[in-house]
Amino acid sequence: MPLPAAVARTAGTVVDHPEQSLLELALYVALVAGVAVVLRVVGIVLWRERMLRRLRREHPDQARELTRAVRAVPLLGMPQLAPSDPYARTHEVAVAPLGDGRPGWSLRAPGPNLSTGDLGRDGSRQDARVLLTDGTHLLVVCLGRLGAVTDGHELRPAQERAQRFATEPPDAWQAHGPVDRVDGAIGTGWRVTASPGGRSVLTDTHVDRDGWAFVVGVLSSSWHARAVEALDAVLATWTWQDDPA
């Protein structure tokens, strides 16, 4: 296979023009590597979206939670500046009431809010995504108004949502243990832990407030018990801000 012109020129001019030759070679290698990364990312995105479409079709009542969990995992494990201490309280994460009745909230965490807070067509919104430490993410989602019906499925109270996920997990997911009740600053929550296979484990705490459904999750790729401890420490700082609308 003939070499590209830039590489051929490099091979013939190393002695005469070493700096130019090395620069051309470096540019060629960088171009090839960049194309490979782009193709890899596109392939992962297409595979992920196909999997999500299948899961949403098979479990439409859990579509929002599945989408949130899958899309929270960075593509290719892209590096982010991770806090060194998941128990630190250096950042205030606050989400104001939206004006449609859903409450706002705030908490203290080791890192900033990385979520864009875009609304879904069903009224759901990922309020926050916080990197607690390398490979461990805190996720807060408002699922919508209790009783709302989307694609024929009603958004049920917190205990029922957690119980359904524990007893009828989606394909390829495995629930770990029963649903636990947890009480704290956030209110009465119902907690369920599950994994989609591999190293990732997700613990969700479902809670309702003023007729709105919320879920707070922690997704980790190792030492999940410590991730849940860090989650509980963060939840101890939770404060609700009711919407007067």
Total beta-strand segments:
12
Main sheet: strands, sense, barrel: 7 strands, antiparallel
> Within the CATH hierarchy, at the fold level, what is the topology of the largest domain?
Protein Transport Mog1p, Chain A
CATH class of the largest domain: Alpha Beta
What ranges have pLDDT less than 50 throughout 5 or more consecutive residues?
5-15
Q: Beta-strand percentage?
A: 25-35%
Q: Nearest-angstrom radius of gyration?
A: 23 Å
| Rounded average pLDDT | 80
Separation of the first and last Cα atoms: 69 Å
Structural class: alpha+beta
Shape: globular
Helix content: 25-40%
Transmembrane segments: 25-47
Keywords: Membrane, Transmembrane, Transmembrane helix
Description:
By secondary structure, this protein is of the alpha+beta class. The chain is built from 5 helices and 12 strands. It has helices at residues 5-13, 18-58, 63-71, 158-167, 224-235, and strands at residues 91-95, 104-109, 125-133, 136-145, 149-150, 153-154, 174-175, 180-184, 187-195, 201-209, 212-220, 239-241. It is globular, with a radius of gyration of 23 Å. The chain crosses the membrane at residues 25-47. Keywords: Membrane, Transmembrane, Transmembrane helix.
Question: Concise description?
Answer:
The chain is α+β, with helices and mostly antiparallel strands. Helix content is 33%, strand content 29%.
